[in-house]
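Title: Comparing notes on inverse folding

I've been comparing how different people in this forum approach sequence design from structure. To keep things fair, I'm posting one structure and asking everyone to reply with a full sequence. Here's the target:
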């Protein structure tokens, strides 16, 4: 039996208990949320962060024991210090639309844009110092914003959540503080289409929990939803001249990529989502057009159904794939599709994502402990022949990979992270590499399992 197979079996049977990280929760925090809204303004090389609003929210869904982020993922990190003692009380990694936009050609032309961003932290008893850090080109965290916050100040907004929507439980296994809480939000569903939303939700969540490692860890999740109706059905599709009055203003053609679905309406999202517990936000889009998106610890988006014969399973693929980004911090492993980015992963820097590598120091490869001894690095495969197979011939491409010498082996295969050369993925095929119902590879499953453990132990 291969080393990684034994490891995977042990991992999936039971996640290891995680030691608490950070101080005792009750000594510094109340079990509710402090939301800090910020503006990030800049270009590819310049950023200015400014404070927008401080808001008290009624629900803290995060862990009460794991307060210091040990996962070391995300383009940004928020750190909370006790103002009087200077003790680090809380930290959390995440990424942003602004961070992705900075890698586009528009940002490189020094065109300034402003994006809204929220950071959620447990509600402190006393004044805190909050820092926002962002990775530089070498992936080192640099503080680009610091502010002092008195949570008991008259300047803290204490309005009730917008709309006062009732949180419904699709799946409830326990306290939000001890589970991974996913909040599903309907986008482009009118009031008359709420029954369709619930059917779509059920179908996609069934596909989600059929996928490993979610299947084995179903009891560590809560899944909630809000019935937020849109005025009109569907979402914006600018390339087709379609503009819709939807609840959260999601749109195709985000960052000028037709299939990429995001929204810039951050404050509206947070105002409504405050009605329910959540660690992860997921927008289910009432649309038959292929599309979606996922940004680490921000949100995921996925279209609900596909009317093209033979493509009926594509929403199930997208739904799980995008959650891999937003929850597991996984990078895309493909390298041939259209993207908006200009050098999203610099090839002379090791990416922070757990499933791709620049292979700058092979003996220190991040997934080395999962590999069989003697596997060559980089790991050879017939990449040029594979690239000559038409992209639409997915069955032929899949069959080709399965005939490779190192099929089923963890290694470092060139071609990943939108780059044909210079970046490597751990497995020949994976849910993060090809458009198929193939599962996550052992390295991706391991990464996701670590995150599940962090939130639920």
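Reply #1:
Here's my take.
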């Amino acid at each position: 039996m291969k080393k990684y197979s034994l490891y995977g079996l042990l991992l999936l049977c039971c996640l290891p208990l995680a030691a608490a990280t950070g101080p005792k929760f009750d000594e510094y925090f109340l079990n509710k949320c402090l939301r800090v809204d910020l503006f990030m303004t800049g270009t590819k090389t310049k950023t200015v962060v400014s404070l927008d609003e401080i808001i008290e929210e009624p629900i803290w869904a995060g862990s009460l024991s794991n307060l210091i982020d040990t996962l070391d993922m995300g383009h940004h990190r928020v750190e909370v210090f006790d103002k009087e003692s200077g003790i680090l009380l809380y930290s959390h990694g995440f990424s942003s639309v602004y961070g992705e936009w900075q890698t586009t050609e528009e940002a490189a032309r020094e065109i300034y844009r402003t994006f809204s961003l929220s950071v959620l932290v447990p509600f402190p008893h006393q004044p805190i110092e909050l820092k926002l850090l962002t990775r530089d080109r070498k992936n080192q965290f640099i503080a680009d914003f610091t502010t002092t916050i008195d949570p008991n100040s008259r300047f803290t907004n204490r309005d009730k959540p917008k709309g006062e929507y009732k949180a419904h439980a699709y799946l409830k296994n326990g306290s939000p503080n001890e589970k991974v809480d996913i909040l599903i939000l309907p986008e482009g569903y009118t009031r008359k289409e709420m029954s369709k939303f619930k059917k779509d939700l059920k179908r996609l969540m069934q596909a989600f929990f059929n996928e490993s490692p979610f299947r084995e860890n179903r009891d560590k999740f809560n899944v909630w939803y809000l019935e937020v109706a849109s005025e009109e059905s569907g979402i914006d599709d600018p390339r087709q001249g379609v503009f819709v009055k939807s609840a959260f203003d999601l749109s195709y053609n985000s960052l000028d990529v037709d299939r990429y679905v995001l929204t810039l309406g951050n404050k509206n999202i947070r105002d409504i989502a405050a009605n329910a517990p959540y660690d992860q936000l997921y927008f289910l889009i009432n649309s038959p057009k292929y599309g979606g998106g996922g940004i680490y610890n921000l949100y995921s988006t996925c279209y609900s159904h596909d009317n093209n014969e033979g493509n009926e399973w594509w929403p199930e693929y997208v739904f799980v794939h995008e959650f891999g980004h937003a929850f597991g911090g996984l990078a895309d492993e493909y390298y041939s599709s259209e993207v908006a980015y200009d050098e999203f992963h610099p090839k002379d820097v090791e990416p922070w994502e757990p499933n791709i590598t620049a292979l700058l120091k092979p003996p220190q490869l991040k997934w080395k402990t999962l590999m069989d001894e003697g596997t060559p690095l980089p790991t050879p495969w017939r990449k040029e022949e594979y690239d000559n197979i038409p992209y639409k011939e997915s069955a032929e491409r899949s069959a080709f990979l399965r005939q490779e010498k190192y099929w089923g082996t963890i290694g470092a295969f060139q071609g990943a992270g939108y780059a044909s050369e210079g970046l490597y993925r751990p497995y020949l095929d994976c849910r993060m590499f090809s458009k198929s119902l193939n599962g996550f590879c052992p390295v991706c499953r391991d990464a996701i399992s670590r995150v599940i453990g962090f939130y639920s132990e």
